[in-house]
Amino acid sequence: MTRLVRKRLREELPEPEKEGGRLYVLGFQGLRAVVKVGSTGAPEQQFDKCETQARNLGYALVDGWVSVPVGTRSEAYRLEFMILTNQHHVLNGHIDGGRIFEWFHGHDFERIRELVEDPTALFHLTLKRALAR
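The chain above was modelled as a monomer; its predicted structure follows.
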């Protein structure tokens, strides 16, 4: 399964650029589902690192998505930070211990991918949730 996901990600990845950042979402399965959200300028290397880390913890890569370049590496990192902050508020209702984590335990891959693909809609969901309190 992992090889098929990595092959599909490679095929979907437009020609790698020397500069620029992309957002990504990786889905892993172990005792429960875990989803990793991040940004990178080097998708293949980042996926290798994430997959090794997850495999060492008993998780297997089962799904993945990578965006087209969303700007410079620095711009992609700022967008990732905003997305992670908003996702924690939307999915968990808070940020655990004030820290922003890239790993989401027990959440649906497709739901998280949809939120990452549309940061504006994610931001609006965060505002709605904040105003409802």
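DSSP finds five helices and four strands in the chain.
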